[in-house]
Amino acid sequence: MDPCHTCNKDILIEELTFAFDRKWHRSCFRCAFCKEILDYEGPVVESDKVYCELCHDILYKPEYYGYMQMMFDLCSSIWKGTYHL
Ligand SMILES: [Zn+2]
Ligand SMILES: [Zn+2]
């Protein structure tokens, strides 16, 4: 059995996560940026690292992050009552 892609240790079958043609411990299959344990759906591989969708967008799609930031600013100004339609 191949070792875990993250820690290079053997994996017991009940801990095995198989994703992107690699094997991982369930607890080693984490986003390289926010360290959240990843689910089977959503993760993205970039430069041989796995990221959750959100971190991937932030790191690799800065224009998307700009949009998120804008929405966030808009929401917080609505919450603070400083935004008027
Ligand atoms: Zn591992
Ligand atoms: Zn993440």
TrEMBL record:
<feature type="domain" description="LIM zinc-binding">
    <location>
        <begin position="2"/>
        <end position="62"/>
    </location>
</feature>
<dbReference type="Pfam" id="PF00412">
    <property type="entry name" value="LIM"/>
</dbReference>
<dbReference type="GO" id="GO:0046872">
    <property type="term" value="F:metal ion binding"/>
</dbReference>
<dbReference type="InterPro" id="IPR001781">
    <property type="entry name" value="Znf_LIM"/>
</dbReference>
<protein>
    <submittedName>
        <fullName>LIM zinc-binding domain-containing protein</fullName>
    </submittedName>
</protein>
<keyword id="KW-0479">Metal-binding</keyword>
<keyword id="KW-0440">LIM domain</keyword>
<keyword id="KW-0862">Zinc</keyword>
